[in-house]
Amino acid sequence: MTHPRGSGVTRPPFPVPAARGTLPIVDSLLFADLLPEVPAHELSAGFRHYLEPFVGITEDGTPRPGLYQLDQVEVRPSRAADAARRYLSGLAPYQRVVGALPMDAPEWRLWTNAIPTWIPKGMRLERLGAADRERALAVIEASLSSAGYTSVRSAMRLNANLGELIGDYQDTLTEFAYWFTVFGEPSSVEPWGWQLMGHHIDLHCVFVGGQMVFAPSFLGAEPTSGSGRFEGVAALDEETETGLAFRRALGAEREHEFVLSASIRAADLPPELAGPWNGRHVGGAGRDNLVLRPEGIVASSLSRDQQDGLVDLLRVYLGRLPEQHAERKLAQVLGHLDETRFLWRGGQDDESAFYYRIHSPVLLVEYDNHPGVFLANPEPARFHVHTIVREPHGNDYGKNLLAQHYAAHHHA
């Protein structure tokens, strides 16, 4: 099947579904105690680490000060706040108890891109009436760009497509098996935010005055294009295509600076990078305090055309935000090009699976192709994609800006 955007990239056919009913998943909960030790450990990472003191992703364990500034931004996110107030006002009191948490609730950091191994807070969209569910989705839509919201909804629909494709786990692999939580009191002045969590989708959106932090954010899909009644639904194509185009633009003469391995097949990688759950990702659930040494080619050493290619790739991820927030974040990243690294693992032909990472002091982006979890491909493939975006040095969940806000306004 030719890529819908006409890039000439050809998708391999989907494999057959994996063996039916082999994972202890019932009604969107994963019973980790029924798994073997290794997958149980990997898939419960978010739950095991969310109460640890927060530091943030750093190069050496110590966050750098001064990377994020709390500014007086004129445009306030009133549309999102209004949508959130409408959503909360429509909930019954018992629903608001679990669907609206304090701004400092630890559940901000409790998430997984797999299936939760705990009973989550927040309202599960599937359990809401149609009107309440639409009001919840309206909060997300009002917070993101049109492209960002489309990506989220496509990933949700492809989750349902996966359930129908394999004919299994159909109380879990559905369009609305996601928990939505509002944190704080929606306001155009005071901090507040929301979390959407479930299979392949973990989004954390924080508003601090007129500023917005959209990190950590995880978007994934298996498969990345729909079939049957989901024909025409696609997700993460730009992340794949634009990343591949940038890699090809770097040429061969400097590959030794950024290509860490020419393949991401399990036999070609160290065991810690070959697992089926995290793959090559380092910044997933439970890794809020990751110490990550910068690796890869330095962005400031690239030619102007190559730097433009990097900017195109950054815009794919930052384009999930409304324009003013995306441009603000892009300018922040461009201010650190001399400290921004790009690395690659895998091939660069039209079919090979790959991984790439952009590591800046103020932004971490990861893209990875995975083997099948519910589909039966034993090696990573283009039709299973995971992406992660984080704000290193303590600004995941907006924590750096929140600390500045509370200090400036003498909040307890």
UniProtKB/TrEMBL annotation:
Pfam family, one: DUF3500
Species of provenance: Microlunatus antarcticus
InterPro entries: DUF3500
Protein known as: DUF3500 domain-containing protein
UniProt xrefs under PANTHER family: DUF3500 DOMAIN-CONTAINING PROTEIN (PTHR37489:SF1)
